[in-house]
Amino acid sequence: MTRWTTAVLDTQLSGGWAVVHSPEGFLRDDNGAMFPREWLKRQDLSVLSEHGIGHFDGEPVYLLVLKQPADVEGCTWQGLRQFMLEGDFDVYKKLGYAAQISTWAREHRFCGSCGLPMQQVQGERAMYCEHCNLRHYPRISPSMIVLVTRGDEILLARSPRFVTGVYSTLAGFAEPGESVEDCVRREVMEEVQLKVKNIQYMGSQCWPFPHSMMLGFHAEYESGDIVPQADEIEDAAWFHVNDLPPLPANRSIARYLIDSYLAERLGLTKPVLPG
User: Fold this and answer.
1) Among candidates 1, 18, 203, 207, which has minimal Cα distance to 90?
2) Residue 110 has what DSSP assignment?
3) From start to end of the chain, where are the E strands?
4) What is the residue-level pLDDT of the chain in tens, covering all 275 positions?
5) CATH match of 141-266 with 3.90.79.10
């Protein structure tokens, strides 16, 4: 049973639970990141906007978007990635959705066309400019992520932004006018100067850092020698399936792509893509 469901809730109603998001992450205490909504409203918080975001275990949940983090007794601020790595995955999905709505609300307070303040649309996840008659919806950025293989070898790379020692698959944003398969070919060529073939779609995962939709692929090596892209790829190499470096977190689609291929080559149990 799914514990978390999204919905546009009326913020004029009272009660329910709430999560609080600021540029520092989510407010949390020893019990987690969800607080009685009415209690939060009595705290000294610089609230930019409030959004009804859905239900968790059947209870309504709201999001308070803060201009800046506040000191609340007994509470700390924690980034979304830490929630992904620990605890209940349904809680992470709830917070991932909240983080994307918070980013959208923070970045669309003013109309990008005329600069006037925008208003929340009741009953719809949209911001509206009355002057321009424009609606802006939460942004989703399509991205590809691909595991490139060559028999018992898989291609893994390091970005300077990765945790020390960790290697992962290649990824990149789709450009206007190209298919995601074209994006796979282009990004692999740009990042490591390799040509790939037999591109196969494997699944997708919401990646709220801050608003990507990761479309996962497996591709086979066709030709070329590895040449890492300057400033983007710190290192890239072929790794044998029995001799791999530190890998991405288990809950990521990157790890799912890797583990799926390991299962195929080594006769292991096929993993399940985290929802």
Assistant:
1) 1
2) B
3) 4-9, 17-22, 25-28, 35-36, 47-56, 59-66, 76-78, 119-120, 127-129, 134-136, 141-150, 153-158, 170-173, 195-207, 212-223, 235-240
4) 679 999 999 999 999 999 999 999 999 999 999 999 999 999 989 999 999 999 999 999 999 999 999 999 999 999 999 999 887 899 999 999 999 999 999 999 999 999 999 999 999 999 999 999 999 999 999 999 999 999 999 999 999 989 899 999 999 999 999 999 999 999 999 999 999 999 999 999 999 999 999 999 999 999 999 999 999 999 999 999 999 999 998 899 999 999 999 999 999 999 999 87
5) yes
Q: Output the pTM of the full model.
A: 0.92
Whole-number Å distance between alpha carbons of 194 and 17: 50
| Interatomic CA distance for residues 264 and 151, integer angstroms | 11
Token readout for 255 is 């790890």
Pick the CATH number of 4-107 from 3.90.79.20, 3.20.20.100, 3.40.50.2300, 3.40.47.10: 3.90.79.20
What residues contact residue 1 under an 8 Å CB cut-off, 6+ apart? none
Secondary structure class of 258 (helix, strand, coil):
helix
- Phi first, then psi: what are they for 120, rounded to 5°? -70, 140
Residue recorded with tokens 């999204």: 6
Same fold, 4-107 and 141-266: yes
Could you state, in order of their start, the residue ranges of all structural domains in the chain?
A: 4-107, 141-266
Task: Give the separation between CA 94 and CA 106, rounded to whole angstroms.
Answer: 18
